[in-house]
Amino acid sequence: NLEEESGIILSGSPTQKVSGEILEELVSVRHTKPMLSAGKTKSIDDLVKFAGGRDVVLSWKMDGLTLVLRYENGVLQQAITRGREGIIGEDVTHTVRKFDNVPLVIPVQESIEVRGEGVISWENFEQINLSLEEPYGHPRNLASGSTRKLNAVEAGKRHLEFVAFELVTDMQMDTKAEQLDFMEKLGFVVVPHIQILQADEAKIRQAVASMKPEEFAYPVDGLILEQDDTIYGRSLGSTGHHENRLIALKWEDELYETKFLGLETAVTRNGMVSLTGIFEPVEIGGTEVSRAYLHNLDIFGKLSLGQGDIIQVYKANMIIPQIADNQTRSGTVDIPSSCPCCGSRLQIHETSGGTRQLFCENPNCAAKLVRKFVH
Q: Would you call 61 a catalytic residue per the annotation?
């Protein structure tokens, strides 16, 4: 009844059974409007200068795979990645139809295009990673790889979501805030945002301080400040790289010095042995951090870690602990040779992603069996 009354049908609706396609390859598609980037800064003073006391909109810079959705006669016709230089993307309609929240039908008959980000929440990212042969280091990579899969059924298992942030088609709306409200009424999840009227330094700093990435459910890599007046925004023009109507605030990764203590290993359900660096606790962004996942043997080798080494750590995008550098590089910590659970000799294999990983090949390893049971 709600779908009949509103004219909105979402891909995750129980009335819909979206068929799973398997393509031979992804087809290239030219964008109707170049998908340019935003100019970047790490200074709030630049945001104040950009606003110039006018009305602006502050929103999250979502960190996933940028997409454009095309609708004809109220029906989703095509989904396209940003692609090369924002001019030619790839048709990923088959997987986008399997997203949890994409409107398949909207109550508008005109041809419209909506731009947004394909993302995976932190919660789903952690759950999905447990089931993968080679865990991803960041939800951005998982979202991109999943959306570009040739098998739509496999992509449908990844709990991808679409967050709209731009109405590409000119619908004669005076403000950015109106555009976002309009897309929300069409059934889209729109990027969380704040409209700042007559934006001065105090208002902008207050708004930026209220956006806390560590409390947000989705990965972000900064904030976007955009002119609210759409006519004025268009009048600012663009360069070959970015549009002048908006600017991105990127966070600086602040490095913290600490002492490396050792390596922790754990066996996944498929036998891959994960490596986690343990170090003396440091406080980063209000939380205590004492461990960082090392992803693969290649990263472990480049860091030349040794017990007692002085290392630099940070939180990537203010979220994920990472080891940035090893200043002493003693290299005294060797690659583990035996399984931490069953003691079997570990083997080194190259994964489909081209990285080297450790594997326990004992089919009766208790850690593997418990992980399978949990999965």
A: yes
